[in-house]
Write a structure and sequence with these properties.
By secondary structure, the chain is of the alpha/beta class. The chain has twelve helices and eleven strands. Strands 7-6-8-5-9-11 form a six-stranded mixed β-sheet. A five-stranded mixed β-sheet has the order 2-1-3-10-4, with helices on both faces.
Length: about 375
């Protein structure tokens, strides 16, 4: 009968729908299971500088999202707290914050740890190296795997070096007077950041230690007549207003530090989390170096538009300057060798990498 057939068809349809719904519910439950039971890790990221500095901005806008993306679909997620600009640690105090367990991930500047992270400062004792930021940073970054003692220095501080080497672009000279030769520096007082004061030894110039917060006033007041600085900082601080002669000496790009994790915390994490934290440092490195290129170009444009006179120091004068210096690199290496650290190995390896990349060095610091 038609009614009976309709009833049976309807019952069969209902049974099929129930089966489909049951299967779909099971599939959805299975797919949601990892998310529902995902472990959320509370992680504080620290940097002493504010986000206006490129390395901090890149940590926030590139590294952290890269870690989150790497953990999608896994049993883990991160609840980030971002502590920058002195909210948790002052500039140079990031290591202590991580040592105390106040932060788990952060930017630590080896530049501010010349004793504890001495090997990482090889670029600052080899002036007139490569102006190529990518080459310098990737070289020192890779040396952490070539020379175990470099990684061990971080580990001795309960820090795990994740990579993402960051640094500063090719340093230059800004003065209140034109500079075309080394003779122009005789008796002149020049501001320089800590280790860069050594770049003025035996040149006739008088090195005056300073930092970005003092440069402008020092020059304006006559305490100094110039400064060794990197372009992006110079433009931001408007140093060309008081030191309009910009001489591209090409002291070279400098490695300044990297992304690290508190090692005792890192070692307790699942390998999936460890891989996400480590691999995302490559994203940071690529984005940082790309962003730096853009900022450097903008810095030179701003200084030029602000009335700066930009010139290149001749290759002959670069050689003369380099030759006038004592061998600060060899002295540094021998001092570290005497302390049981591979100073000479680090110096030789770094210089060999630059030469292999085709860099023309006005002075080979490793052979004297």
């Amino acid at each position: 009968m038609p009614e009976e057939r309709l009833r049976r068809n309807w019952e069969e349809t209902l049974m099929r729908l129930n089966t489909i719904l049951a299967s779909t519910s099971l599939a959805v439950a299975i797919s949601l299971a990892p998310a529902l039971h995902a472990e959320e890790l509370d992680v504080t990221a620290v940097a002493g500088h504010p986000p206006v500095f490129l390395w901090v901005n890149t940590l926030s806008e590139s590294y952290i999202p890269a870690v989150d993306a790497a953990l999608e679909g896994t049993d883990f997620s991160v609840n980030w707290t971002e502590a920058y600009g002195g909210t948790l640690a002052k500039v140079g105090g990031e290591r202590e914050a991580m040592e105390d367990g106040l932060a788990q991930v952060g930017i630590v500047s080896s530049l501010f740890e010349p004793s504890l992270l001495s090997l990482q400062n090889v670029t600052y004792v080899t002036p007139f190296g490569s102006p190529d930021v990518d080459l310098v940073l990737s070289t020192v970054d890779g040396m952490h795997d070539e020379i175990p003692a470099m990684r061990k220095l971080w580990e001795d501080l309960d820090l795990e070096y994740l990579g993402g080497g960051f640094g500063l672009e090719d340093y230059l000279l800004m003065t209140t007077f034109p500079v075309t030769s080394l003779d122009d520096l005789q008796g002149r007082k020049i501001n320089a950041p800590g280790p860069a004061v050594n770049w003025l030894k035996d040149t006739g110039a008088v090195g005056v230690s300073g930092n970005l917060t003092t440069y402008y006033n020092d020059i304006q007041s006559g305490v100094a007549e110039g400064v060794i600085v990197f372009p992006t900082a110079a433009a931001a601080a408007k140093l060309h207003e008081v030191a309009p002669y910009v001489t591209r000496v090409h002291f070279g790009a400098q490695f300044a530090g990297g992304i690290v994790a508190q090692k005792s915390w890192f070692d307790e994490q699942d390998p999936v989390v460890q891989a996400a934290l480590r691999n995302s440092a490559d994203v940071f490195a690529a984005d940082y170096r790309l962003g730096l290129e853009t900022r450097v170009a903008g810095a030179f444009k701003a200084m030029e538009e602000g009335g700066a006179e930009i010139s290149e120091l001749s290759e002959g004068q670069r050689v003369a300057w380099a030759d006038a210096l004592p061998n600060i690199a060899k002295d540094w290496a021998k001092d570290l060798d005497s302390k049981g650290l591979p100073g000479t190995e680090v110096l030789t390896t770094y210089i060999d990498h630059l030469k292999a990349a085709g860099v023309s060095l006005p002075r080979d610091w490793s052979v004297e």
